Amino acid sequence: MSLAVSPLGQEALDRPGAPRAVVEATLRDIARVNVWLGGRAAAAFGLDALLDGPLPQRELTLCDVGAGSGDIAHYLARRAARRGVTLTPLVMERHPVAARLCRRAGLPAAVSDGAHLPLGDRAVDVVLASQVLHHLGRDAAAALLRELDRVARLGVIVADLRRHLMAALGIWLASYPLRLHPVTRRDGVTSVRRGFTPGELGHLLRLAGVSGAVHRRPGYRLVAFWKVADAHR
Questions:
Q1: What is the pTM of this model?
Q2: Which residue of 136, 157, 165, 172 lies most exposed, with the fewest beta carbons within 10 A?
Q3: Residue 115 to residues 88, 143, 146, 161, 166, Cα–Cα distance (Å)
Q4: Burial track 101-139 (b if 16+ CB lie within 10 A, e otherwise)
Q5: Kindly report the CA angle at 5 between 114 and 228, in degrees rounded to 5?
Q6: Residue 149, in any domain of the structure
Q7: Quick one: which of 106, 97, 46 has its CA closest to 71?
């Protein structure tokens, strides 16, 4: 069973058959937006929280589910290194074009749907889903959260968009100086429409049976993170 897409519009990355050139342009744009509009910083906020305090070891693995071009996975590995932690990334992508881009960037990548990650229980230390959840309907999103929790040994980071009129206006206006592809401009607004309020994301966490707190971050971002119950056993 694959994860059902959110009913609120459709983006290029929702369609595995979307033209390769459009997908590649969109993923390059998303990487730039992540730098300038808070995507990288949101994921880093969650990673810093998980790495604070005692760690089982200084060499950890990161599974980035829905990694896009792999830009955030690379960034988090560099950030962890500044704390003396070796963070080795691998990525899971349902879109074959995105998986190829990740491999080209030197990241081990598998084509996989988030409903059934090809990993055993507690197989990796840190699991990340950045800007993935808003692509899914409610039940599919809760199923993905449970799957992320299943494979994590240390903890989970979920970073997504906070739905707000100013966020939609901001991505539309920023798309011009950032020279984003027209598809990215349109899809960026759709993404914000599909985003969450803090209460909605908190409800999804409870529906999935996980206990992460939801934090507002700059750039109209939301971040939830939690350590798994047996993280230090």
A1: 0.93
A2: 165
A3: 23, 7, 9, 21, 32
A4: bbeeeebebeebbbbebebeebbbbbbbbbbbbbbbeee
A5: 35
A6: yes
A7: 106
C-alpha 71/C-alpha 107 separation (Å) is 10
Q: Which amino acid is at 106?
A: G
118 in Cβ contact with 109 (< 8 Å): no
Is 177 domain-assigned? yes
Residues 207 and 144 sit within 8 Å (Cβ to Cβ)? no
CATH number at residue 197: 3.40.50.150
Domain region containing 155: 12-227
- The answer to whether residue 72 sits within a structural domain is yes
Per-residue pLDDT of the chain (233 residues; tens, 9 = 90+): 355 555 556 788 877 678 899 999 999 999 999 999 999 999 999 999 999 988 889 999 999 999 999 999 999 999 999 999 999 999 999 999 999 999 999 999 999 988 889 999 999 999 999 999 999 999 999 999 999 999 999 999 999 999 999 999 999 999 999 999 999 999 999 999 999 999 999 999 999 999 899 999 999 999 999 999 765 44
Q: How many helices (H) and strands (E) in the chain?
A: 8, 7
CA quadruple 163, 166, 172, 174: dihedral positive or negative? negative
What sign does the CA torsion over 38, 3, 188, 215 have?
A: negative
Residue 169 belongs to a domain = yes
Domain tally, the chain: 1
